[in-house]
């Protein structure tokens, strides 16, 4: 019986087995079914068997599995769905179907992912023949489907609804979310975007758009449809469709289809035969965009490839390559970033062709990374501009334009249609080979070193070679000795002299006439024989330690760079052995006032044949009232400006000039020639400037009372006028017509064309521009009236109103509406060097000032805050690159450097800033992340310098992201957003309206040595030592001993000689000459005539620790400097007993009281300059108070003091200098 039952059950199982199989092939999966991640795990199949759902083992890691749906009948088992945002799971993980949906757990049972929100309603699941995996209720209602949760692929019958998206993978085998997105937008467009990181809210560049939106919403798109016939289209709300894919495609009945957003950003439609032999692979049918290399050109993100990489198209697919001199940051990701071999820096001070060279690459460009454009120019000037700019990494030349680029480079592309030439900058000797050479095996390298040593030994053994060595050594000794002989009148690149001691002995007649005694020596009167017979004061330092040469030169360096109206000028020095002398100019208390001769106009008109010569006679042509003068003003020694100025005020303010960019030398002449030409020529007869004449012949000229210089015909018709060619200033009655402009001066004292323009354009718009200095083209409009088509003329009337009018006289825009009558005030409107147009007034009479000082004062200005108006993508902004602009209490923009940066040109606050440290290396082996830290600056930003944006993130994440990125110079953190900025930074501003903070990345130890080439230099040094050593070892004993003996004798002899020094590198670019002791002895006639003397314990100048039982440090010099600075800004001595109030006897005490009580004007009662700029005075006062702190530990070091003076470091509120005494 049991045996019969056994056979019966076996028969039933055999009969029912096909039914079980059929149930599986119908795609229904019951609740409770599960899958395990192993090699032998069977997936859930679609009824046709075309698709499978389950775990697919990763190719590059056999222990990881990806939950996915794939084509099951083709060899590649191409994945068409995976759950975005989940990582591959380890071996042994499980997927279970229960009433709550799909549950994915790791081997330990921890939940990794689930289809949440289904409320225990799932009855079964199915994978249908379209590749869609569906969860259903018992009534067959769909609860969840893979088609509604796509990854990077869509299949026939699948749609993308509004707000739906596809996200690319990171790489072909890395299923993490990548940088590319395909989205159906609410406006009806299907677009492709990049996004830096998946967590960002905002997207970056849009590089494809279906153009299916419409102003009429009923006509716009709402759905991407991939229909059963394999056609991809955009469905519109009006029922129409816009076909995207090609119409001639193979039938879907014979081919599998898919459309995938590839990891490299191209959305591609593929087909694969259903019946095949071998492995035919997928064939592209359509792709969007057609050329991703050219389509991506946004200002955020790296582009189609990584940063610094170059993209070229092959078979509708981007191929990414690093340019020569760059290498992949991740060797396993060819689509990733490229790191440069050399990062430009401004620390070494080396630029130009002597230290750098350029590698030329054709048909290559990196759009959207330029910080400066030069147009027009030629290719040679483009090369030179990049070589001479320490911030320039790459230059692009195309169509007579040059773009200077900054790292990291983005959107790189190679295309023959570009017509561009790229110049990549490298340190000289570092340019890579055009054809990469085969690496040399290490044993071959050792053989080469052996050959070097053997060869040099053999060469050294030759007697003939030894004789050559002896001759070369003798020649070298001779040359070195010759260089130590001073040149008495040698003037280097400066105007200051390096005197010999003998010269100064002669000049002072043996130091005969003593003028006085100082703290460290005696001052003598001298006569320097330089052709001008200049009288000098020679200070002979007789109490200076002999082992402090470096300190002496450092002091001379500091004095030489100090210029102040209350300081005599240092014109030279002597540093010869034990003799150290300083040579100063002499300022006599009594000035001989020479009469200034002018050629008075006997006639109001200037007749033909008249002329003025540029010299010290100051000849002028005056207006009838004498209020304006035309003539030459000396701007720099030997340099004259042909100008018009206010003649009745002491400032002689210039309002027009002819040769602002080409000063005339002394002896130049302006002539009104007999034929009517009006020309300025130098002494050699070369033309510098000429009036552009058109019309009747000139009969005479006149300087009018309104400040207009005119050339007129015999009928008094104006042929030419200065009002028609303004420089930077408008006067009452002077219009600015269409096509006219004002160009700001370079600085307050440099009248050459500067960085800003105010233009009345021919299209009617009145615009403020930044200029592409020193070129003439404009960069960015930072203020405009928006009067295109209507603006005609700027009017400055006699009542002080300045406004823009239409051609019919209608006022379109009022620029300045503050009334100021020309009968009571001199007036001018000037576009100043800082880019602000200001209306100035100056009382004509002292009794009609209405409370205004007798001087120029600002009546109004535009724009109100230039710092926040600058947002151009190219150009530096209101200040220079890497600088930031802040509005002072006087409403003027102040340009400053962030901490760790210094001015490119110390004499030009708008020249920009350069980092005082070596930038972070991109070499992964160096791993310099830990060597950098941040300085925080609140309310500070550099707009339009960012290359990456992350949102939302926290501040710690932002800091670390910048530290880990060698290209990140500054990170801006604001409202949970992080922007990474690259060099050079532009449009910097610090303002209360700017939210968030700037994180300035600096090298922690503020190192200034470029460590990137140390290893190379050490290797070169070792090679040199090898050759030199082997040569000496291989030489004959006698000759080697002779060479060494000669060298030792020369060194010993040279050390015994009096030390006569040439100008040292300690004094780079300083206008100071190093005198010999003999020069100063002669100059002072043997130090005979004493000008004055001093004492080491001069009251008020010596730091208090000298008189206390305290250690002496370099901070004593800081104290003395602070006292000197205090005296300079207050125009009085520190100790002064002849004062009415005894509280004012000690300046250092009184100054702090005034600072604390906010009565600063008591200190500068008679100083108009300080009163005019009280904020600058207060800053200098605060610095001096820090320097004179009686507690040495509170005094800053001199480097910090210099940074505070430069403005690169904020000056904190100083404590009471006497607090140390009170505590003690």
Query: Major β-sheet, in short?
Result: 8 strands, mixed
Write down the Rg: 40 Å
Share of helix, binned: 10-25%
Class derived from helix and strand content: alpha+beta
Describe the global form: elongated
Describe the model:
- The chain is of the alpha+beta class.
- 18% of the residues lie in helices and 31% in strands.
- The protein has 18 helices and 80 strands.
- Strands 37, 38, 39, 40, 41, 42, 79 and 80 form an eight-stranded mixed β-sheet that branches.
- Strand 53 and strand 54 form a beta hairpin.
- Helix 5 (463-483) runs parallel beside helix 11 (1037-1056) and helix 14 (1147-1157) packs across helix 16 (1174-1187).
- The radius of gyration is 40 Å and the shape is elongated.
- 38% of the residues are buried.
Task: Give the helix/strand layout.
Blueprint: H1 2-25, E1 28-30, E2 34-36, E3 44-45, E4 51-57, E5 64-71, E6 79-82, E7 89-90, E8 94-98, E9 101-105, E10 111-114, E11 124-127, E12 133-136, E13 142-145, E14 153-154, E15 158-161, E16 165-169, E17 177-184, E18 190-194, E19 206-209, E20 221-226, E21 232-236, E22 241-243, E23 255-261, E24 267-273, E25 283-288, H2 292-295, E26 310-314, E27 317-321, E28 326-328, E29 338-340, E30 356-362, E31 364-365, E32 370-374, H3 379-387, E33 394-398, E34 401-405, E35 413-414, E36 421-427, H4 442-461, H5 463-483, E37 497-498, H6 503-507, E38 514-518, E39 521-528, E40 534-541, H7 549-560, E41 570-576, E42 579-585, E43 605-607, E44 611-613, E45 620-622, E46 628-636, E47 639-646, E48 654-657, E49 664-665, E50 669-672, E51 678-681, E52 687-690, E53 700-703, E54 709-712, E55 718-721, E56 729-730, E57 736-737, E58 741-745, E59 753-760, E60 766-771, E61 778-784, E62 793-796, E63 802-805, E64 811-816, E65 825-831, E66 837-843, E67 857-862, H8 866-869, E68 884-887, E69 893-896, E70 901-903, E71 913-915, E72 932-938, ...
Parallel strand pairs: 37-41, 38-80, 41-79
Antiparallel strand pairs: 1-11, 2-8, 3-4, 4-5, 5-6, 5-7, 8-9, 9-10, 11-12, 12-13, 14-23, 15-20, 16-17, 17-18, 18-19, 20-21, 21-22, 23-24, 24-25, 26-27, 28-29, 30-36, 31-35, 32-34, 33-34, 33-36, 38-39, 39-40, 39-80, 40-42, 41-42, 43-53, 44-50, 45-46, 46-47, 47-48, 47-49, 50-51, 51-52, 53-54, ...
Helix pairs in contact: 4-10, 5-11, 13-16, 14-16
Transmembrane segments: 451-481, 581-600, 1025-1053
Subcellular location: Membrane
Keywords: ATP-binding, Disulfide bond, EGF-like domain, Glycoprotein, Kinase, Membrane, Nucleotide-binding, Receptor, Serine/threonine-protein kinase, Signal, Transferase, Transmembrane, Transmembrane helix
């Amino acid at each position: 019986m049991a045996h019969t039952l056994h056979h019966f059950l076996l028969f039933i199982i055999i009969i029912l087995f096909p039914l079980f199989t059929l149930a599986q092939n119908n795609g229904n999966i019951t609740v409770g079914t599960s899958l395990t991640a192993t090699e032998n795990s069977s997936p859930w199949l679609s009824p046709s068997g075309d698709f499978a759902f389950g775990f697919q083992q990763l190719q590059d890691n056999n222990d990881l599995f990806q939950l996915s749906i794939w084509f099951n009948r083709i060899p590649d088992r191409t994945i068409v769905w995976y759950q975005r945002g989940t990582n591959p799971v380890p071996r042994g993980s499980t997927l279970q179907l229960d009433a709550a949906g799909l549950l994915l757990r790791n081997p330990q049972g921890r939940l990794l992912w689930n289809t949440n929100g289904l409320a225990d309603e799932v009855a079964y699941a199915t994978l249908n023949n379209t590749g869609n995996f569906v969860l259903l209720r018992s009534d067959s209602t769909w609860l969840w489907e893979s088609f509604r949760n796509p990854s990077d692929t869509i299949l026939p019958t699948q749609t993308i609804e509004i707000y739906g998206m596809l996200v690319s993978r990171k790489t072909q085998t890395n299923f993490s979310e990548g940088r590319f997105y395909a989205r159906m937008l609410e406006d009806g467009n299907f677009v492709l975007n990049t996004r830096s990181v998946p967590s960002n809210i905002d997207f970056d560049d849009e590089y494809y758009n279906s153009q299916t939106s419409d102003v009429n919403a009923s006509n716009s798109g709402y759905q991407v449809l991939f229909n059963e016939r394999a056609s991809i289209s955009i469905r519109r709300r009006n029922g129409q469709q816009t076909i995207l894919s090609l119409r001639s495609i193979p039938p879907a009945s014979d081919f599998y289809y898919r459309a995938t957003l590839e990891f490299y950003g191209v959305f591609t439609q593929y087909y694969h035969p259903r019946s095949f032999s071998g492995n035919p692979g997928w064939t592209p049918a359509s792709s969007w965009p057609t050329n991703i290399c050219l389509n991506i050109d946004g200002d955020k993100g790296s582009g189609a490839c990584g940063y610094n990489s170059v993209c070229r198209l092959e078979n509708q697919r981007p191929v990414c390559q690093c340019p020569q001199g760059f290498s992949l940051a991740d060797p396993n990701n060819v689509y990733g970033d490229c790191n440069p071999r050399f990062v430009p820096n401004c620390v070494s001070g080396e630029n130009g062709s002597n230290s750098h060279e350029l590698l030329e690459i054709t048909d290559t460009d990196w759009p959207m990374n330029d910080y400066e454009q030069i147009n027009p120019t030629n290719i040679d000037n483009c090369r030179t501009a990049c070589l001479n700019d320490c911030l320039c990494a790459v230059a692009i030349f195309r169509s007579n334009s040059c773009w200077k680029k900054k790292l990291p480079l983005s959107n790189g592309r190679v295309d023959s249609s570009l017509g561009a030439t790229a110049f990549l900058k490298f340190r000289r000797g570092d340019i890579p080979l055009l054809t990469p050479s085969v690496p040399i095996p290490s044993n071959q390298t050792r053989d080469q070193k052996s050959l070097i040593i053997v060869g040099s030994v053999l060469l050294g053994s030759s007697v003939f070679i030894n004789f050559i060595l002896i001759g070369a050594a003798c020649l070298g000794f001779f040359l070195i000795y010759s260089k130590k002989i001073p040149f008495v009148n040698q003037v280097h690149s400066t105007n200051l002299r390096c005197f010999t001691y003998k010269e100064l002995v002669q000049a002072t007649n043996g130091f005969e006439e003593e003028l006085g005694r100082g703290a460290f020596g005696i001052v003598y009167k001298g006569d320097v024989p330089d052709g001008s017979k200049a009288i000098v004061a020679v200070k002979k330092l007789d109490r200076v330690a002999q082992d402090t040469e470096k300190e002496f030169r450092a002091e001379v360096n500091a004095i030489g760079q100090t210029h102040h109206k209350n300081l005599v000028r240092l014109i030279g020095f002597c540093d010869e052995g034990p003799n150290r002398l300083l040579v100063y100019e002499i300022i006599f208390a009594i000035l001989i006032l020479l009469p200034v001769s002018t050629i008075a106009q006997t006639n109001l008109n200037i007749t033909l044949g008249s002329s003025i010569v540029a010299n010290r006679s100051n000849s002028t042509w005056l207006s009838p009232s004498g209020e304006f003068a035309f003539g030459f003003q000396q701007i720099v020694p030997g340099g004259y400006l042909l100008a018009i100025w206010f003649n009745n005020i002491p400032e002689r303010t210039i309002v027009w000039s002819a040769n602002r960019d080409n000063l005339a030398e002394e002896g130049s002449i302006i002539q009104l020639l007999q034929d009517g030409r009006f020309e300025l020529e130098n002494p050699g007869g070369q033309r510098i400037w000429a009036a552009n004449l058109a019309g009747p012949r000139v009969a005479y000229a006149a300087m009018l009372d309104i400040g207009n210089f005119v050339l007129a015909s015999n009928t008094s018709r104006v042929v030419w006028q200065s009002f028609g060619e303004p420089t930077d200033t408008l006067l009452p009655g002077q219009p600015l017509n269409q096509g006219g402009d004002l160009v700001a001066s370079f600085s307050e004292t440099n009248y050459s064309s500067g960085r800003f323009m105010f233009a009345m354009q021919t299209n009617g718009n009145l615009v403020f521009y930044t200029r592409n200095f020193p070129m003439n083209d404009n960069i960015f409009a930072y203020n405009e009236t928006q009067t295109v088509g209507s603006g005609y003329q700027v009017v400055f009337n006699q009542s002080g109103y300045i406004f823009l009018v239409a051609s019919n006289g209608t006022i379109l825009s009022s620029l300045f509406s503050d009334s100021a009558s020309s009968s009571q005030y001199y007036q001018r409107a000037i576009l100043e060097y800082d880019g602000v147009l200001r209306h100035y007034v100056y009382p004509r009479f002292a009794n009609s000032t209405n409370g205004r000082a007798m001087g120029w004062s600002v009546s109004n200005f535009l724009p109100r805050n230039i710092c926040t108006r600058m947002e151009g993508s190219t150009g530096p902004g209101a200040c220079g690159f890497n600088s930031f602009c802040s509005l002072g209490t006087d409403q003027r923009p102040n340009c400053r450097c962030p901490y760790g940066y210094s001015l490119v040109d110390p004499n030009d606050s708008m020249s920009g800033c350069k980092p005082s440290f070596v930038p972070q290396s991109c070499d992964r082996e160096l791993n310099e992340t830990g060597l950098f830290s941040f300085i925080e600056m609140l309310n500070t930003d550099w707009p339009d310098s960012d290359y990456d944006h992350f949102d939302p993130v926290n501040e710690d994440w932002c800091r670390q992201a910048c530290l880990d990125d060698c290209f990140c110079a500054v990170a801006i953190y604001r409202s949970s957003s992080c922007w990474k900025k690259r060099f050079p930074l532009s449009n910097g501003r610090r303002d209360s309206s700017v939210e968030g903070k700037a994180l300035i990345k600096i090298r922690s130890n503020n190192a200034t040595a470029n460590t990137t080439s140390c290893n190379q230099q050490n290797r070169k040094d070792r090679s040199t030592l090898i050759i030199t050593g082997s040569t000496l070892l291989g030489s004959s004993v006698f000759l080697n001993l002779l060479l060494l003996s000669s060298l030792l004798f020369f060194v010993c002899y040279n050390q015994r000689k009096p030390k006569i020094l040439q100008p040292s590198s300690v004094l780079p670019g300083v206008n100071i000459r190093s005198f010999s002791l003999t020069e100063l002895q002669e100059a002072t006639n043997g130090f005979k005539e004493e000008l004055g003397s001093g004492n080491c314990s001069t009251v008020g100048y010596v730091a208090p620790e000298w008189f206390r039982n305290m250690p002496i440090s370099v901070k004593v010099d800081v104290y003395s400097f602070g006292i000197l600075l205090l005296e300079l800004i207050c125009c009085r001595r520190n100790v002064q007993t002849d004062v009415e109030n005894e509280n004012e006897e000690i300046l250092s005490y009184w100054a702090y009281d005034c600072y604390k009580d906010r009565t600063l004007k008591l200190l500068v009662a008679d100083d108009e300059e300080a009163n005019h700029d009280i904020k600058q005075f207060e800053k200098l006062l605060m610095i001096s108070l820090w320097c004179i702190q009686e507690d040495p530990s509170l005094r800053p070091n001199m480097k910090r003091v210099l940074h505070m003076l430069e403005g690169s470091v904020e000056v904190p509120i100083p404590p009471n200098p006497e607090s140390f005494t009170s505590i003690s």
